[in-house]
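Session log. Operator J.P. requested a structure for one protein chain; no other inputs attached. Running the standard single-chain path with token output.
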Amino acid sequence: MSEDELALWRQALAAVPILQGLSDTEQTTLIGLGQQLLKRKTLTLIGVELSPRQQAVLALQAALPILYLGVDWYRGFHEIIIIPEPVIRRQEVQDEFGLVSEVEEENAGESWPQGPLVLAWSELQQDGDWDGFNLVIHELAHKLDMLGGEADGTPPLPGSMSSQLWQQAFQTAFDALCQQLDRDEVTAIDPYAAEHPAEFFAVSCECFFTDPLRLRSVDPEVYRQLSLFFSQDPALRFPATRLLAGEDVAGSRAINTNHPL
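Structure written below.
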């Protein structure tokens, strides 16, 4: 890699808040993983253009979950498709009384077993901060989940981890979230997590990497299991300056205008 290329990757890394706090060794590993992803995955751009720096920013965030897992954990798909805006889909839903109605659903990202990853550029531009949201991490969490077969919230676990403890932690937290919503309470994490155990896992991964103190406070056992799985502890990387300022970064996406992409 030339000095100019390395400088570009270093600039991209420095532009993403959630990548701050990594050691020099971790930064070097992350850059290597990001480069491998761009070489191994076909990046198809539909109606958008990404500069080399923007591609590097995207690849680095995608590489963060596999920092200690390795690029082989993103096997089974070969293409990442970037579209301009979320896709609006109409579908029929049936309520508890059997009444069927048509609803519109906005999909900013999609992933299928053995299929491509589809991401909306308008959402990707907002990723990278400590705000509890990250589209690329969310969708890649589904890919990790699917390595075990059907997306059910349980990816293949290392031999050192207990599947029983994993299931207990996630099921307990999932049930508690559903009960909160049944009581019309405001939830600490994105209520979309209650849609399905697979979505709970993906949302939890988003929160783990982008709002770790909140997840650790709300669902400490889920945080512990994710920390064991990813071999990371993002809470240690959370900037002390934001703690001192008493900043509540969760849900700040709507007012954040300093985006790395």
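Operator note: The CA atoms of residues 55 and 248 lie 29 Å apart.
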